[in-house]
Amino acid sequence: MVLFRLLQRMASSIPRISQHIQPLKQPLLFAQPPITQRATVVQWYLKHLKTHPHRTNMVTSFILMLVGDGIAQHLETNTEDLGSKKVQFAAPGTFLPQGIQLDPTRSLVLSTWAGSMGVLFTSWFKYMDRVFISWPRFTGVIGKVTLTSVGLSPFTNVAFLSIVTIMEHIMIKHEFNSKKLMWAAEDKLEKEFIHTLLSSWTFWGPVNFISWMYLPPYIRVAFGGFSATIWNVYLSIIQHRKYLKRRHFENNDDINDNSNDNDVK
Q1: Is 106 helix (H, G, I), strand (E, B) or coil?
Q2: 250 falls in which pLDDT band (50, 70, 90)?
Q3: 100: helix, coil or strand?
Q4: Hey, how many other C-beta atoms are within 10 angstroms of the C-beta on 192?
């Protein structure tokens, strides 16, 4: 009986005590640390991926190709000399005995291409989601990966090898002879297309499967962009590696600089 009265008094005193206690905004046990500057940047980036996906993926792809080509230029040893001058970006040191020397024109051409691909793949991923919207999840993902590999990859690899080759010859070698430009693009496709396409299927098949299977739509292209840093190193190396044998047309007198009708003076 005494215990019952004691519990009654304690219960009646709780409302009076609670009036003097300010409620906590968050339980102390689950209190979150203050948002750091890094977290703010990530939030800002994710917000722009949702609100401006084409623009954000274009800039992301551009920057990541700059990084990939910079790594490639530092690693490659058997490079075709296009006649461009490299710029010293970092002085020689303990970890970089030769410093960092990069060809900015080459990086600009490759990064511009990558930026355009960021826009293309943003639209392509949205299109794939619409095409396979009624399919079961796993089957739809397999369909998206297959259609991307068979329908889009051959086009993008042909376009990369030919367009980038032509742009580099124009901007770096200052070559404006249309026949020579076409021969250079054809030569690059003949030597690199099949190998690049097979490598593309091997690399991007698993990446696209993970992207479509596990990631929300607005992150997929960005995830592909960051994965592409590795791919960009490979693309940059195969685009600029030197061959032991060049095609006969390079010394062919039938295509010379006296082709005034095709030259731009």
Answers
A1: helix
A2: very low
A3: strand
A4: 20
